[in-house]
Amino acid sequence: MPSELRSRQQRVRPMGAILVACGAGLGLAALAIATKKRKHAVYSGPPSLAHDSSSVTAARELNQGSGMLALSVLCDSARALQGQFLQ
Amino acid sequence: MYAPLISSSLSLAASLHGTADARQGSHRLRHAIFTAAAFIGLIGGGFHLYNVIKREGGFVFQNLFYAAPIGAPYALILSGVLGAAAEWVRDAEPSDPKLFGVKADRILSALTSAGLLGTVGEAGLLHFRGAFQNPAMLNPSPLGDRDAIGAIVKCWKTIPVQPPQCKVHWRLI
Questions:
Q1: Which residues, numbered 64 to 83 in chain B, qualify as contacts with chain A under a Cβ-Cβ cut-off of 8 Å?
Q2: Which of A15, A17, A52, B78 has the maximal Cβ count within 10 Å?
């Protein structure tokens, strides 16, 4: 492996690791918030807009979904960017 | 290359804010972030498609395998649309939320199924690239496709409004 590429890899790898760690941290934070808010909630069946009288609860569940997708895009694009730097 | 990073970070932050927000009514900034994410995803999808078709051979498996990942931007679109839908649902009637005149649960189930279909399609493509070396690699494609298509059909059938009649003029194609 050429020395230039190796040194570039050494520079880029920590950046990728930091980005992935940030993403994982944010994901865990989202999970923690979601768990905290539901700790005292009474389970009333699976989450569904059809059976839920509160549109706010449904919207918050949708936000969890959009957040998870955004997290996956973040990790994916960080990995792609890392690959771009290595080329 | 930086647009999805920035956009997905903002979308993630907006989603976290939305998850913690128990108030009725949409939030303008959140809504703008989600709409922008969906729009950026759409533009990215166009770029990725262009990256595939501009290569020699055009829209062939070889280019789908090794060019820009065709399905990746659609996750950003889906994230933005789900976030925007969350804002619409916040503004909707609490007891019977509707989107575009259709029950929100039906339309969002169809959207989720479409997302699942895309995910399964991409997994199938990548597993096909790997020549299904392990028989377990065949698993997501047929099962996921069947479930996703079934869910979309079921949702479509239960929508009370008449679907638009699309007539295709085959002679022109």
A1: 72, 75-76, 78-80, 82-83
A2: B78
